Amino acid sequence: MPKITSLRMLPLDAKHRWMFVAILFYGILVKNNIVGSSDTNDTCRQKNVLFASAIESSYQFPSEVVYNNFTGMKLCFNIKPRGNNKTPACCQNEDFNCNFTIRNGHENDFWILILNNETLSKHDIVLMKSPDQNYNCMPSSNTSTSFLLKIHQCLNTGVQNIRLSQNSFCEEIQRYDEDACKGLKETDYNLTISFSNKSHHCVPCKPPGKKPGGAITFPPPDRNNGTGISVEDAAKIMNNISLLLERMVNDSTATITIGNIKGVITKLPPKNQTNIIIGTTTSGDINILEDNDSMMGFSVKIPSEASAMAVKRNSSFAALLVFPGIRQDDPKSIFLNNEAIGIEMGTEISNLSHTIDINYRNVDKNGSIASCRSWDGKGKKVIWITDGCKTKKTNGSITCQCSHLTFFAILMSPTPGNISSSDFTSLTYITSIGCGLSMFFLAVALFMYCLIRKGKASQATKILMNLFVSMFTLDFSFLVNESIANLGNFGACVAVAAVMHYTMLATISWFFIEGLHFYFTLWKLPTDIKHYMMKICVAGWGTPAVVVIALVAVRQYDYMVIYTKDGNSAKMCWISNAVVHQGVNVGYYTVVFIFTFIVFIMTVRKIALLKPAEGKAQETSSIRTNAFSILGLFLLLGISWAFAFFSYGPLLIASYYIFTILNSFQGLFLFIYYFNSSKITREDKSFTTSGSTTDTSNTVITNPH
Predict the structure, then answer these.
(1) Residues 377, 407: contact at Cβ < 8 Å?
(2) CB 359, CB 310: distance < 8 Å
(3) Domain count of the fold of the chain
(4) In sequence order, what are the beta bridge partners of 254?
(5) Residue 108: its pLDDT value, please?
(6) Which residues form the GAIN-B domain (predicted)?
(7) Can you name the residues that pair with 412 across neighbouring β-strands?
(8) Which of 154, 170, 204 is the last residue of a domain?
């Protein structure tokens, strides 16, 4: 009995096994032989399939829907037999959409398919390159087994067909092509299907940008010379732009044409503001764009914050105009494309936390420096400034990030570089090494002072230690300046620029105090003034603080770019206005230099008039001490900084190297001077004590330290 039961069960088990094998075989073939579908889950779900071909067939494919009860899968064969253009009945079924066009390309190498995304919402499309070869895929019956065994032949019998699904039919999307989309709807796609390399190129027929609903055209202004317009007239046009709202009637957006001036105006919704993107399209028009639209030329992104601010202040529109032919007064500099952009929203928009981004793509700078400028449209004199705008340059594009609305332009100026890249690199290495060594030895000197000599230090030594502190901080802030500038944090950049400027002015101030104290010592003037050290510390540290606080208040610290002759550059944080830099720093040092140089000359003259000491030992000691005093005085008074005055003409590069070496290594030199001066002072005291007689005429200039 068990044996009979097992024999009876065998056919049923075998049938199930063959069905499982058939399903597995079908799945493998579908996955390996359908080209163009990236969504493998469509096969697993047994999605409906519409078969189509640009080639007529010699056979009669089923006209009705082919339905499989086991999987629920439906097939429609839109394959027309030769001489019969009648649409198959399955195309009238609600589960299929045959409203698309297939055209045969050159020698059947490629097909052109016109469809929209809705066509593939209910089913996939399998394109049969050779329908006659696929005809034997027709199921012999509607049983599930025969259906599964036959269906894979429709998908592939020796040649690979192409399957299009909703999620993958337009993976390689191309730019909008007016010729390819001529006569088509904006919702259509033009697909070029290639069977040789099993690929397809998709051209969306929606033009980039939302086409404005209306068009407003005016003749050019009377004073327009045919190529441009004065900025004064441009300001008048922008001030009256709100009058155009009356001509828009029911249109939410409209293009504006005033001679060769082009632009767009759009009404703002009362609520739910979004970002507004305006730019030039492939056709050269200026339109409202969507986030995924391709842009050519320039684009402007107005943040939703600006629109919300405008609506809150009872304004209801945003407008942008491009004014060509705007000229820069400086003949050496020009505006990019000789154009300015005016943006108006009917009210003052400023201090935005999300900036207005004006982006120009594929800019050929030709070695020029790009700088974003703005003009408020007010006053008789047109002044283009950099306030409120940051310039960012990446991969051939220039972006102006501005926190206010007004006129904008990008100024292209010639590179002011006057040094080669090799010299710039060498000077950078010298500066880094010199500042690093100076910081180390200045720290050692301060350590020696604090632990050894602080209790019995003279006034001159205390003044020298203040100079060491200012120089140490100056070297440190200089070394970290470029790194902080490259971080892109504006607040940190302002902070490091202010610290470096403050310590530089403090260093110059202590040069002056060194000269003043040395003058008192040289002429034996009394220095026992009440609170003498406190007063000179207030002068040395307080005066620079007043200058720096004033510059911070007027926002003079910003990013600055140093250029070389071949276009290379380095960024740092410093005073952005060259006039302010010259007036404050050069002027400040010039006053100090005049005084310290006079003290230096007086000291050298006094040393030269001294009689040499008698005796070989005394004479050697006197010459060594005096020579060392002169060299130390040269460094203490900051005379070496004067080489910056010779940074012109044939002495330019040489003065750079001398200035860099002397000043970056100045901390090291002053440490050596401080150490040796202490030693010489002890030797002089020892020599004076051991000597039996001393001629008052044999005087040397002893070091005050």
Answers:
(1) yes
(2) no
(3) 3
(4) 214, 265
(5) 64
(6) 272-418
(7) 334, 370
(8) 204
Number of Cβ within 10 Å of residue 540's Cβ equals: 23
Q: Which ranges of 530-651 does DSSP label H, i.e. alpha helix?
A: 532-537, 543-553, 578-581, 587-608, 616-636
For residue 534, being part of any structural domain is answered with yes
Are residues 465 and 404 part of one domain? no
Q: Which two tokens stand for residue 430?
A: 């010298």
Boundary (domain end) residue, out of 186, 204, 222: 204
DSSP result, 379-402: SSS---B-TTEEEEEETTEEEEEE
For residues 199 and 219, membership in a common domain is answered with no
Is the distance from CB of 203 to CB of 177 less than 8 angstroms? Answer: yes
DSSP states along 621-656:
HHHHHHHHHHHHHHHHTTGGGGGGGG-SGGGHHHHH
Same structural domain, 287 and 236: yes
The answer on 539 and 474 residing in a single domain is: yes
Q: What is the CATH number of the domain that holds 500?
A: 1.20.1070.10
- Residue-wise pLDDT for 487-535, tens only, equals 878 899 999 999 999 999 999 999 999 888 888 877 776 666 778 888 8
Q: How many residues does the chain have?
A: 705
One domain, residues 426 and 395: no
pLDDT category at 375 given cuts 50, 70, 90 is confident
The tokens 């060498």 sit on which residue? 426
Q: How many CB atoms are located within 10 Å of the residue 682 CB?
A: 10
Are the beta carbons of 659 and 644 closer than 8 angstroms?
yes
Residue 700 lies in a domain: no
Residue 179 has pLDDT above 60, yes or no: yes
Question: End-to-end distance of the chain based on CA atoms, in angstroms?
Answer: 122
pLDDT tens profile 613-646:
555 555 555 666 666 667 767 777 888 888 776 6
Pairwise CA distance, residues 387 & 392, whole Å: 14
My answer on whether 513 and 382 are in the same domain is no
With CA atoms as reference, report the closest residue to 462 among 534, 542, 544. Answer: 534
Question: How many angstroms separate the CA atoms of 201 and 128, rounded?
Answer: 18
Structural domain contains residue 356: yes
Lowest-pLDDT range of 301-315, 564-578, 675-689: 675-689
The amino acid present at 156, given as its one-letter code, is: N
Residue at 558 is within a domain: yes
Mean per-residue pLDDT over the chain, rounded: 76
Q: Which domain holds residue 59?
A: 35-204
The whole-angstrom separation of Cα 677 and Cα 630 is 12
